[in-house]
């Protein structure tokens, strides 16, 4: 009987895989390496292999440790393991980042290896690095301190000591803000400052890994206990492993070889942190018995997207080029990728928002759409444009939803509720616990208070979602789930468009992807170009573009702007990586012309200055220019917006942003034409809300207008 059900489970696990994927999944216990391009099913293969090993009784779910490098990618693995569970138990497999895994293990083993001294995690090393730079008598700007912190991270990730740093940096040809001896002095000072705190050791993220490796390497009892607990290791995105992470992995493994790795050297995009595809490429040298499987069928993207990806990566040069793989698209044909040039970033963002709106209107879920950019600072203009277009979105970067003060307080308060054993349904209990922390029925005034409220609301909604998925969930299990997410820094998913950096998009996929800012100087980024056009940093930028392209299942739009701000000098060029792969990139080749034509700059209605900031464009005046606002009308508009947002169960800004309401209360539009002249109000909003808004405006200005009318007639 038992055997039967194992066989049934196993056949479900492999029957929708291709031959090569199946070979990797069913390979005997021991080392397995899957070397394959984007979208070929590496993550699918690895999660199926876990399910197979568990279902066939090789390991218990709790003995598997699956690791990767970004919290989102870890979240993706967990989601897939959960959906494969079906009674097999894969949902309880530990899947997390190297850092989260090390942090957990260290918390467990620390008292035994160190004794009474506690430790505290140094979330950001900026302040300590700044202090160390100061002591080394360096005049370091904020940017310099960041660079110094980056150097320390690279050195620690690469297992390079302060003493060895100058020679290593010369060999690696890194560009550093001060001479290498000075950077090494800051590195030494940083380590000293960290160690010198009374009673508690201060550990940065790399220390978590170092101490974990050391605890296992140096203490036979710790090693024994750890190795009894975990027997099977799986690494996704293995091309991104640093020497330090590899050392941890080696400590985990000991003399064993139950290790499955998957990766794509062409997606190496973390070299600047010390990551290297060498361990992936050398895997079969280290484990001569390893089963090595190559995949080349791309199941994710249309042949149109796959063809562009192939052309972009075919131009790669340097050490990774030898591992070039040619992807073969398996999906039905789809639309050709579009390449669009815009006069400035505001116009680019507005055009992207418009296309997104059209996709949503024609049935694509907002959560299946992403806007990807090179650096996080690019998100702002897209946040603004999407807000104006009334499209919900979520900025990814995973920067610590769970590190927010109110969320940490919430977890403490929920723990107290567990201890008190309170009654009620889970969503009710949670709302009651969060209320004193600021989860009021309506959003409070003030930016910080509102941010807090939004975070608490997101937490409450996350709980609703968990309960909907698992109705039997109790408070204790919920807390465990939240803690696991917190460890993995996995923010809750909202059903909105994703805004993310290319680095954060690794391993993920969406129906529609907008790659924005594909201009020389942004992608490749200027500091990479400073190393020379054929340098390895420029090659890494090319791989970033490849990663971005291969995130799209169907719709792919690449765009760039000639200037940063409206009216600015149009000196930019499309990315060099598009040469020869995109239709000769100048002018708009898409059917939708950019919304804001060249040279037509919006002007302030008070002082007539050209407006560039998105907020000012919506207000139609400089933010500093005097406002002729009707305060009572604004209050009425806000009340009305709150009613609407509740009725429609959407956040208030989806109805209208504050700036749009201010513009209405200032300009007192009398008819539809005057309403649509306000940025942020398009045809759909006019149809939905136009009558209400005009009635409110008329209600305020009405009596005066009527009297005036009577007098003149
Ligand atoms: P990346 O390099 O971007 O991480 P990957 O190699 O890990 O990509 P997956 O994310 O596992 O690829 O798979 C890409 C998509 O193709 C997923 O939606 C997956 O479900 C689908 N897929 C993979 N293999 C198959 C298959 N044999 N049949 C149908 N769909 C598949
Ligand atoms: Mg993957």
From TrEMBL:
Keywords: ATP-binding, DNA damage, DNA repair, DNA-binding, Helicase, Hydrolase, Isomerase, Nucleotide-binding
Residue span(s) of domain UvrD-like helicase ATP-binding: 15-302
Keyword match Nuclease: no
One BP annotation, GO: recombinational repair
Molecular-function annotations in GO: 3'-5' DNA helicase activity; ATP binding; ATP hydrolysis activity; DNA binding
Superkingdom assignment: Bacteria
Protein name according to UniProt: ATP-dependent DNA helicase UvrD2
Organism the protein comes from: Mycolicibacterium rhodesiae (strain NBB3)
Lineage, top ranks: Bacteria, Bacillati, Actinomycetota, Actinomycetes, Mycobacteriales
């Amino acid at each position: 009987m038992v055997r039967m059900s194992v066989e049934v489970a196993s056949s479900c696990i492999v029957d929708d895989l291709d031959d090569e994927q199946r070979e990797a999944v069913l390979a005997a216990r021991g080392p397995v390496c899957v070397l394959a391009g984007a979208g070929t099913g590496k993550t699918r293969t690895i999660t199926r292999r876990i399910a197979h090993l568990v279902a066939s009784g090789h390991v218990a779910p709790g003995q598997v440790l699956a690791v990767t490098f970004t919290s989102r990618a870890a979240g993706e693995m967990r989601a897939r393991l959960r959906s494969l569970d079906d009674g097999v138990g894969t949902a309880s497999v530990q899947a997390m980042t190297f850092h989260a895994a090390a942090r957990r293990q260290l918390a467990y083993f620390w008292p035994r290896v160190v004794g009474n001294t506690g430790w505290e995690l140094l979330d950001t090393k900026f302040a300590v690095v700044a202090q160390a730079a100061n002591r080394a008598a360096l005049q370091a700007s904020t940017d310099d301190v960041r660079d110094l912190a980056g150097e320390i991270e690279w050195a620690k990730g690469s297992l390079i000591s302060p003493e060895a740093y100058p020679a290593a940096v010369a060999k690696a040809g890194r560009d550093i803000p001060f001479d290498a001896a000075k950077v090494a002095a800051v590195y030494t000072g940083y380590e000293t400052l960290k160690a010198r705190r009374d009673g508690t050791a201060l550990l940065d993220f790399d220390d978590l890994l170092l101490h974990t490796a050391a605890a296992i390497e140096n203490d036979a009892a710790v090693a024994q206990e750890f190795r009894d607990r975990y027997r099977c290791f799986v690494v996704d995105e293995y091309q991104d492993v640093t020497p330090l992470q590899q050392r941890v992995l080696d400590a985990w493994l000991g003399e064993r070889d139950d290790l499955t790795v998957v990766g794509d050297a062409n997606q190496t995009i973390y070299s600047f942190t010390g990551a290297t595809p060498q361990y992936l490429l050398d895997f079969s040298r280290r484990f001569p018995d390893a089963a090595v499987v190559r995949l080349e069928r791309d199941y994710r993207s249309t042949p149109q997207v796959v063809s562009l990806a192939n052309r972009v990566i075919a131009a790669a040069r340097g050490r990774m080029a030898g591992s070039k793989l040619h992807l073969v698209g398996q999906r039905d044909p789809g639309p050709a990728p579009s390449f669009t040039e815009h006069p400035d970033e505001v116009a680019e963002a507005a055009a992207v928002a418009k296309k997104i709106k059209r996709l949503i209107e024609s049935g694509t879920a907002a959560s299946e759409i992403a806007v990807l950019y090179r650096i996080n600072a690019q998100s702002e203009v897209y946040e603004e444009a999407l807000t104006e277009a009334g499209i919900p979105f979520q900025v990814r970067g995973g920067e610590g939803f769970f590190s927010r003060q109110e969320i940490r307080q919430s977890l403490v308060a929920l723990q107290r509720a567990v201890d008190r054993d309170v009654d009620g349904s889970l969503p009710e209990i949670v709302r009651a616990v969060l209320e004193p922390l600021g989860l009021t029925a309506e959003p409070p005034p003030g930016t910080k208070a509102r941010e807090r409220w939004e975070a608490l609301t997101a937490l409450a909604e996350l709980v609703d979602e968990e309960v909907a998925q698992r109705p039997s969930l109790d408070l204790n299990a919920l807390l465990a789930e939240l803690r696991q997410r917190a460890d993995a820094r996995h923010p809750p998913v909202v059903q909105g468009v994703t805004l993310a950096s290319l680095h954060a998009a690794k391993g993920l996929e969406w129906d529609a992807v907008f790659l924005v800012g594909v201009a020389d100087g942004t992608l490749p980024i200027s500091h990479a170009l400073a190393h020379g056009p054929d340098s390895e940093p420029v090659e890494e930028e090319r791989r970033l573009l490849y990663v971005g392209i291969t995130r799209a299942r169907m719709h792919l739009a690449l765009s760039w702007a000639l200037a940063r701000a409206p009216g600015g000098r149009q000196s930019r060029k499309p990315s060099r990586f598009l040469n020869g792969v995109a239709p000769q990139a100048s002018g708009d080749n898409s059917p939708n012309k950019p919304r804001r034509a060249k040279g037509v700059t919006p002007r302030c209605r008070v002082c007539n200055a050209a407006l560039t900031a998105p907020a000012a464009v919506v207000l139609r005046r400089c933010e500093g220019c005097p406002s002729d606002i009707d305060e009572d009308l604004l209050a009425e508009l806000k009340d009305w917006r709150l009613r609407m947002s509740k009725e429609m169960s959407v956040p208030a800004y989806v109805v209208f942003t504050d700036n749009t309401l201010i513009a209405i209360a200032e300009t007192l539009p009398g008819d539809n034409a005057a309403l649509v002249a306000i940025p942020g109000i398009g045809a759909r909003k006019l149809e939905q809300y136009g009558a209400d808004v005009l009635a409110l405006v008329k209600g305020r200005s009405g009596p005066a207008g009527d009297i005036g009318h009577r007098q003149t007639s």
